[in-house]
Amino acid sequence: MGKVKPRLIGDTEVEEQQKKEQKAKSMEKKMMKKRDVVEKKEKKSVKVRKVSAKATTTRGKNYQEARKMIDRNKYYSLPEAILLLKKIKPTKFDQSVELHFVVGETGLKGEVELPFSTGKIVRVKIADDSVLSDLEKGKIEFDVLVTHPSFMPKLAKFAKVLGPKGLMPNPKAGTVSTKPGEVVKKFEKGMLRWKTEAKFPLIHQMIGKISFEEKNLIANAEKFFDAVGKSHIQNAFIKTTMSPSVKLEFTK
Question: What's the sign of the alpha-carbon dihedral 119, 125, 131, 132?
Fold first, then answer.
């Protein structure tokens, strides 16, 4: 017969009381940890807001002056907007002129050949052994890569590197061709590929330099509007590299 552990009267009540006290202490510790986490998040949030506010209030003098020149509630025509951007006090470099569209959906993409140069030099290469050698070393010295279909298997192992950058040759993008030399000439002439951001219905495109003639910038902008399709565009803005944005009016 096994040993029987003696128990004094009242032991059960003592144990229950101790369990309640331990549970209360445990809950108190958890609450304190949660409070500490919340306090840290609040401090971080306040810090971020302060930095953001500081960044907003410390915009350059030129930017602040430009902001005063733009009516934030007005929708400008293309000629009005470009003329306004040209009047803004220039910086030390020839700024790019950029179009920014808010569209109805993600996944939109296409190609367009603008009537005038954007001023950006596009580096186009045909995939060959020297390009493969550069890729092995982690060197990417092109903006567009064109290839013959027979060379695609050799490029396959670099898909994880080129794909996220939008540089992997693709038949739909016109960069896989049995006549790669002709494709190179097309892109060197100014063929642009555009698409929405991966997760947001936004399109951004440089259409020239602020020093370019007004009529050339207008022609490039109108061509890009048509390429995207005005029916897809919900809001449109134009700006230079360092200026505030200007709202554009357009008819669908």
Answer: positive
Letter for the amino acid at 9? I
Best CA proximity match to 223, nearest among 120, 117, 121: 117
State pTM to two decimals.
0.63
Instruction: Give 119's contacts (C-beta < 8 A, 6+ positions apart).
Output: 94, 96, 208, 209, 212
The tokens of 184 are what? 């190179």
At 156-192, the pLDDT tens digits run 999 999 988 889 998 888 899 999 999 888 887 778 8
Q: What is the 3-state secondary structure (H, E, C) of the chain?
A: CCCCCCCCCCHHHHHHHHHHHHHHHHHHHHHHHHHHHHHHHHHHHHHHHHHHHHHHHCCCHHHHHHHHHCCCCCCECHHHHHHHHHHCCCCCCCCEEEEEEEECCCCCEEEEECCCCCCCCCCEEECCHHHHHHHHCCCCCCCEEEECHHHHHHHHHHHHHHCCCCCCCCHHHCCECCCHHHHHHHHHCCEEEEECCCCCCEEEEEEEECCCCHHHHHHHHHHHHHHHCCCCEEEEEEEECCCCCEEECCCC
Letter string b/e over residues 166-181, b meaning 16 or more CB atoms within 10 A of that residue's CB: ebbbbeebbbbbeebe
Per-residue pLDDT at 2: 53
| Count of residues in the chain | 252
> What are the tokens at 241?
């590299």
